[in-house]
Design a protein that fits this description.
Blueprint (H helix, E strand, L loop, with lengths): L2 H5 L3 E8 L3 H6 L11 E5 L2 E7 L9 H15 L4 E3 L5 E2 L2 H10 L1 H10 L3 E10 L4 H8 L1 H11 L5 H30 L5 E4 L7 E10 L3 H12 L6 E9 L13
Antiparallel strand pairs: 1-3, 1-4, 1-5, 2-3, 6-8, 6-9, 7-8
Helix pairs in contact: 6-7, 7-8, 8-9
Length: 254
């Protein structure tokens, strides 16, 4: 164990790995938070990537977030791993050992789940600036209800019903368009997570777990699926990323 590790007052945690990859990851000479060298400690069939740190807590400043992401992304592109969310700090080497020992069952289960896989994120949006107006222009029932309201002849119940009609049509279209993508992408993915909508213009947001060697094939499939949509839609996808959306860790630290 290095002198830096022996004298550290705490350890910032980046990821969990298989012990068999300890030497290969260590040889990459990665540097993380505060430019500290990343060390990989193995216990049994698991390993943990850490770097020494003095602070007991760390704020999500851009430079720290970037350093964390650089380390976990580099590892995920080459080895099976479980990324840890930003900010986990172990107090000492004893706690590092405890994390590995007390959580070995769930860690092994999770690393088997994402073995050799990375995450790709995909989103589909409507390009219209005014989504309600976009739907009014496309659906006559909605247009008629809108006309009654504009004319000042609508009751409160009429207004509520129009809102319900809009939400129903919005959700129906989202489901229909999402299914189009899922039919194309599911054969190429181990898992797909349909993520929550953030904006009214969002049609869908997907997290896709793919084998790290199938990125090109996956990209081609996304382009093929994009051909099913008109210019009324904007499609974007990014990655590969560490499989954050598919790692569900509730770690014992005590």
């Amino acid at each position: 164990m290095s002198t830096e590790i022996e004298t550290a007052t705490g350890f910032y945690v980046y990821a969990f790995l298989r012990a068999c990859d300890q030497q290969a990851v260590s040889s990459a000479k990665l540097h993380g938070i505060e430019d500290a060298e990343v060390t990989v400690i193995a216990r049994g069939d698991l390993a943990i990537a850490i770097s020494p740190i003095v602070a007991k807590k760390i704020r999500p400043q851009r430079k720290f977030l970037a350093a964390h992401q650089e380390v976990v992304t580099y590892i995920s592109k080459r080895w099976s791993m479980l990324p840890v969310s930003f900010g986990l700090i172990a107090d000492n080497t004893e706690q590092v050992d405890h994390i590995l020992d007390s959580n070995k069952i769930i860690l092994n289960e999770q690393i088997d789940r994402v073995d050799s896989h990375v995450e790709m994120t995909l989103s589909l949006k409507w390009t219209a600036e005014n989504i309600p107006q976009y739907f009014v222009d496309r659906y006559s029932d909605l247009a008629e209800a809108r006309a009654i309201i504009v004319a000042g002849n609508a009751t409160r119940d009429d207004q509520i019903e129009m809102g319900r009609m809009f939400e129903k049509l919005l959700n129906q279209e989202r489901a229909t368009h999402t299914d189009k993508f899922l039919q194309v992408l599911q054969p190429l993915t181990k898992e797909i997570e349909v993520q929550p909508i953030r904006q009214e213009s969002d049609v869908m947001r997907l997290a896709c777990l793919i084998h790290r060697d199938s990125e090109e094939v996956f990209s081609q499939a996304v382009y093929a699926a994009a051909e099913l949509f008109s210019d009324e839609f904007a499609i974007s996808f990014n990655g590969p990323w560490p499989p954050y959306s598919f790692v569900k860790l509730a770690l014992s630290m005590e």
